[in-house]
Amino acid sequence: MVDFLNTSGGQALLILKAIDLIEGGRGAEEIVKELANFLLKINLYVILEAPKWIEASGRISHFVANLMKGMAKAGIRPVMTFKNGTLSPSPML
Questions:
Q1: Does a structural domain hold residue 72?
Q2: So what's the pLDDT on residue 7?
Q3: 58-93 per-position pLDDT tens digit
Q4: What is the DSSP secondary structure assignment for residue 92, as one 8-state letter?
Q5: Is 30 within the bounds of a domain?
Q6: Do residues 48 and 35 share a domain?
Q7: Above pLDDT 70, what percent of the chain?
Q8: How far apart (Å, rounded) are the C-alpha atoms in residues 5 and 46?
Q9: Are residues 72 and 55 in the same domain?
Q10: Are 50 and 80 in the same domain?
Q11: Range of the domain at 28
């Protein structure tokens, strides 16, 4: 079992990497190590139209959701990132 620490986009990248490693004839232990290293390199950046579903899933607090809604009314949409299983504001790109 693997904790992807990511969303479906990150999971898809890991699965494609695993397929490449399997087709390359790598052993199970080596594949696990490679995927663990690859996982640390995956960064997902998102701009959300509305925080409704990430608030409902518990990824952000009600306070942060309200802050994001207020920003959206002003035409500001923060760039968020998924890293290590956590959704947070992205540092400057």
A1: yes
A2: 64
A3: 888 899 899 999 999 999 988 888 776 677 778 765
A4: P
A5: yes
A6: no
A7: 85
A8: 16
A9: yes
A10: yes
A11: 8-39
